[in-house]
Amino acid sequence: MGLFFLDYGAGNVQSLANSLRKLGYEFQWIRTAEDFDKATSLIFPGVGSFGSAVTALESKGLLEPLHKYIASGRPYFGICIGMQVLFESSTESPSVKGLGLIPAKIDLFDNADKTVPHMGWNSIDLLDSADKSDEGLLESSHYYFVHSYRASYDPDGNPVAAHWVHSTTQYGQEVFMASVRKANVFGTQFHPEKSGDAGLRIISAWLSESESARSSAPPTPRIPRPPKPRDGLTKRIVACMDVRSNDEGDLVVTKGDQYDVREKAPAAPGTIQAQAEGAVRNLGKPVALAARYYAAGADELCLMNITSFRHSPLRDQPMLAVVRAAAEEVFVPLTIGGGIKDTVDPDGTKRSALEVAGLYFRAGADKVSIASEAVYAVERMRARPSQDGIGEAVVVSIDPKRVYVDLSYDGPYRDEVIRGSPGTEDEAKAWWYQCTASGGREGRSY
């Protein structure tokens, strides 16, 4: 099987490459237009915008060869943007035309009853599947979605497009296409490579079919799917690990209290406060712990490098190696934090926050987390309301710190004061939480 992988040059596609290797499949990258002639199966994953994807393919001379490849009847699997480019157009980029295989357009979610983007784990409804499973998809499973634009499901208003719909899902009261399948084309709006074992099952099922079977899926009957009272979202578990260098220079997962991550030495005679004089708390290696959390059922993983603000991120190779290694072991969303900011290398080379984030995305991260930079961004926005906000694929992490006050405190933060519960070691304490920056070293008056 000549399995090829199409990367239009945006975002993180390393996760899907890792998934294919995990499943034991070899593949080649589409580098030139001639590579399409060698492919007998093609996977096109993608994150980013509809317009940038189509424009990038066109500028590289790959858009028309992609169209010819699909028209040839050879198997095609599109993920997220790889599915959306099959449509005629998208309101995200009105002037850009898609491949036009599916006669419908991609439109923005209605944000009247929900937040946009849609980001989370949804169940699906398979169409015309008596056993509630097809091509590895299961109605009992949940899959990871992250997008602001969708193709609505309208079997009466657009019956031709409805014949392409393989499964639907729901966000708020909107029913939209979760996957499409017809003839040689299969596509998912969600990310199977980030949906854990349920997603790997889909990829494996598609690749395990014969190429002739993957090229002859029949049209789907038009089946009504009115909105349900509630959407198919589910609660999930996110495992977050603080990573820092220990005294030997190794990256370890640690924990602490009020940013103190060292083991406590016994209290000195005549004192009651233990001193932080010991070694950095070592809970284990980050990659090994990430793999353990994934195996135990974690749905998302966060690795926060809490010392990278002291170093140039582009010279912080151990953390990049951690990201690459973790992305080969876990197949759920991976968030990386620490040092995602404009910086200057020791040789004077300026690096933008976008360049730093891009390096982590290419290493296998799906999102980056900012803490101090989020505080600074909000302060700039408050000073200048026209200031741009925080971009997509960014997680904002707020670092709080206790500020202790008297139990009788009646100052400006009295509405935020928390008092310790009776019978606990905090019983006689009261405090409010202060926003901080720079790893807890800078406090704010809010």
Automatic annotation (TrEMBL):
Catalysed conversion reaction: 5-[(5-phospho-1-deoxy-D-ribulos-1-ylimino)methylamino]-1-(5-phospho-beta-D-ribosyl)imidazole-4-carboxamide + L-glutamine = D-erythro-1-(imidazol-4-yl)glycerol 3-phosphate + 5-amino-1-(5-phospho-beta-D-ribosyl)imidazole-4-carboxamide + L-glutamate + H(+); L-glutamine + H2O = L-glutamate + NH4(+)
SUPFAM superfamilies, per the entry: Class I glutamine amidotransferase-like, Ribulose-phoshate binding barrel
- Keyword Lyase attached: yes
Signal peptide, first to last residue: none
Q: Enumerate the PROSITE patterns for this protein.
A: GATASE_COBBQ, GATASE_TYPE_1
Q: Where is this region: Disordered?
A: 211-232
Pfam entry (one): His_biosynth
User: Where's the Glutamine amidotransferase domain?
Assistant: 5-196
Family statement drawn from the similarity comment of this UniProt entry: Belongs to the HisA/HisF family.
Q: What name has this protein been given in UniProt? A: Glutamine amidotransferase domain-containing protein
Q: Which organism is it from?
A: Somion occarium
> Which lineage?
Eukaryota, Fungi, Dikarya, Basidiomycota, Agaricomycotina
